[in-house]
Every structure is written in structure tokens, then in C-alpha cells.
Amino acid sequence: MDRKAASVLKRLNKLSVTLTFLTVRQRVFFVPSIMTFLKEPTAENWCEVQSNIRTTINICTELLETLQDTRLGIASKGFFGDLVLCVMQRQRSLREFLNMPQPSTSAELRALKDYIDGYPVLLNTLDKANAALNAFLDARGIKSPTLTN
Fold it and tell me: What is the value of pTM for the model shown?
């Protein structure tokens, strides 16, 4: 394998690690922080939600930079479009979310609840794209990290 190909595979492995970190972090911190806020809509809990949003946006930015750097190596793969779309949509929606005031009315809290109720679908889409990326890497002799339940 030439140096360029090895470098792309190394960055793709980093992408997989970052995707795994993102989805786990969102399940462990982001979604629960919103659920806590919905149960107890205080300014302190909203600050925690915003902190988690900022962290997620930073991770999404890192993912998009890696996707940009490695796009020529994986753009033809089936998972690439879904992965780019999912990360870009997440980043865009979270930026909008970050800029909104703290939800306080029952309609605003309901909208937030509806948003977070649909979040597992987004996480599952990322998991599937990451699994396809891992299969791509495995076929090239690169073992990516996996989580067991």
C-alpha cells in the first residue's frame, strides 16, 4: 500500500473513532441533558444543554473536516452521502438550536420534546454509516473500534 493510501486509511480510521465518540457522547450526555431540562426547565439545566450542543457542534466540525480531507477516497462508497448529510444536518440544526432562547412555553417545550424524541433515528443513521465505514476499513485490514452493549 502506498503512503497516500495509508494516510487516507489512517484518517478514515480517525473518522470512525470520532463518529463512535460522537454517538456515544450524545447518548450519554446530550440526550439526557435535554430530558433533564424538560423535567426541570431551569436556567442551569438549559446552560448544560447549551454546553452539550457546543461540544457536539465542535465534534461535527471535526468530522466534516475529516470527511473533506478524505472525500476522494470514499466519495463513491454508499455510506459517504448519508454520512455527510447526517453530520451537516446535525450541525445546522444544533447551531439553530444553540441560538434560540431557553424554551419556556408549553409549545416550546413540546417542540423540544418532539425534537429529542426523534434523535435516536439520527443516531442510528450515524451508527449505520459508521458500521459501513468500519466494514470498508476492515476489508483493507484496518480494525476500527467497536462498542459492545
Answer: 0.84
